[in-house]
Amino acid sequence: MPLILYNTLSRTKEEFHPSTWPAVKMYTCGPTVFRSPHLGNLRSFILADILRRTLEYNGYQVYHVKNITDIGHMEQEHQHPGEDDVALAVEKGAAVAAAVAEFYTGIFHEAEKRLNILPAHNFPQASQHISEVIALIRRLMEQGFAYEVSGTVYFDIGRWPQYGRLSGNRPEELAIHRVEPDPQKRNPADFTLWRRAEPQRVEWWESPWGRGYPGWHIEDSAMMLKHVGEQVDLLVGGVDDIFPHHEDVMAQCEAATEKPLATYWIHGEHLEAEGERMVVIAENVITLEDLVTRGVDPLAFRYLCLTAHYRSKLHFTWESIRAAESALRNLRGKLAEEVEGAQPSSRGQPYVDAFVAAINNDLDMPRALGILWEVVRSALPFEERRKLAGDFDRVLGLGLAHVVPQELPEAALRLIQEREMARSSQDWARSDELRQQLLAMGIEVRDTPQGSRYSPRY
C-alpha cells in the first residue's frame, strides 16, 4: 500500500517516492534554543517523529537531520523586532549567549525524550557552521543573487523569479511580511543573508564584509547542504515556517545549486490556546515543564496530538490534556488485562491492514489511534492484542511496549474478594467504600455487565 503525503509545494496529496530506494533523506527545522520549547513547537517535532516512524514502518531507511539554532535570529513573533533572541535571553540573567544556548539545548533534548521522540541522527548547530554560511553567501554573490551594502548582505529576489512558489505569495506583495523597512534594500522584500554587527552585539564573526552574524534562513541552508546534500526527500516544519523561512531556504539553496531542494514539503498546523496560535507574544505559552508541574504524564500530550490530523489546528485546554491522560491510562489498563472468550489469532490481520491504510493516508493518526482501540477492546487472545499494539506503537510512540500485566498484591486481592461478596449481597455502600480503597492502592476498578475487572493503574 503506497504512502500518500500532502505536499505543500504542489498543494496536493502525492504518492511518496524517495530519490534512492530505500534510503530517505529528511530534514527538520529544529528549535531556537533561547527558552524552553512550548507545546506548539513540540507538536511540530511530534509530526516529524510520526512521519519518520511511518517511513520506517514502511521499510524505508531514514537519515534524519534536525538543526539547532543557537545564535539567535530575527524572530517575527518577538515583541522587539530586530533584536536577537539569544542576546535578549542573556540580558535576562545568563552569563554568555553560549551558556544560554547550551542550557536550553539540554531542555529541548529532555523534552523530546519525555515525548518519546526518536533522536535525529544528526543535530548540527548553527554556531558551528559560520564558515559554511560565509561560503554559501559568497557563492550567491558570485552568481549574482546577492548584494552587499555597508556590511550587510541581502538576497535579491528580483534575480530569482521562482520566489513565492512555495508560499503562493506574489513578489509585489511580499514587503508587507517584513518586520521593518530597510532603505538599503533594492527591493523591500529582499531578505538578509548577513547582517553587520551593531556595537552592542553579543555574538559576531569576522567575514569578508566585516564583523557580523548570519541571517536566520541562511543558517538552515548551509547546514542542510553540508549534512543532507543538495537535494533532500522530505523537509518538515510547521505552517509558520512556510513563509518566510522555507521560502527563503528554498531560494538560497536552489539559486546556489540550480537543483530542486526538496521533493516533498510537509507542514503541520498550529496548536492553539485561548483561541490563538500558541506563541510568546500572545502570552498563551505552555511548556512541557508546566504539564509535569501539574502532574500530567508528558505522553498525554503526544496522545492528544494523535487525536487530530497534523494538517488541522489543535486547541489545547487543561480539560483536553486531562482527558487525553485519562484515555492513555485506560488504554494501558485495557492492554494489560486478560479477556474471556478469546478468538483465534488469525483474526488480527484485518486490523493490521486497516492500520497501514490509515497511516499511509497522509498520516491519519486519529484513525490509526481508533484502530488501536479496536484491538485492545477486541476478543483477540491476550498475546495477540499485545503483539498488535506493540507493532502499531512503532508509529504511535506511546510507550506501550512497557505495559505488562502485573499481579495484584495480596492486600488488594483480599479487598477484591470482600468487595465481590458485598456486591453479591447488594451492599452497595460497602462496595463503593472498598472501591475507593482499591483506587487509593492504585487498582483500577471497572464494573461491566460481564463482571468486575481489576487492574493496576498506569
What does the model show?
The chain has 458 residues and is α/β, with parallel strands linked by helices. The protein folds into 3 domains: 4-268, 3-Layer(aba) Sandwich (Rossmann fold); 288-402, Cysteine-tRNA ligase, C-terminal anti-codon recognition domain (Four Helix Bundle (Hemerythrin (Met), subunit A)); 410-456. Helices cover 40% and strands 16% of the residues. The protein has helices at residues 39-57, 85-91, 97-114, 130-142, 216-227, 242-257, 288-293, 299-306, 318-336, 349-359, 365-377, 382-396, 410-424, 428-440; strands at residues 4-7, 12-15, 23-28, 61-66, 146-149, 152-155, 191-196, 212-214, 232-238, 262-268, 271-273, 276-277, 314-316, 443-448, 451-456. The strands form 5 sheets. A 4-stranded parallel beta sheet has the order 4-3-9-10. Strand 5 (146-149) and strand 6 (152-155) form a beta hairpin. Helix 4 packs across helix 5 (216-227), helix 10 runs antiparallel to helix 11 (365-377) and helix 13 runs antiparallel to helix 14. The radius of gyration is 26 Å and the shape is elongated. Mean pLDDT is 88; it is low at 74-83 and 91-95.
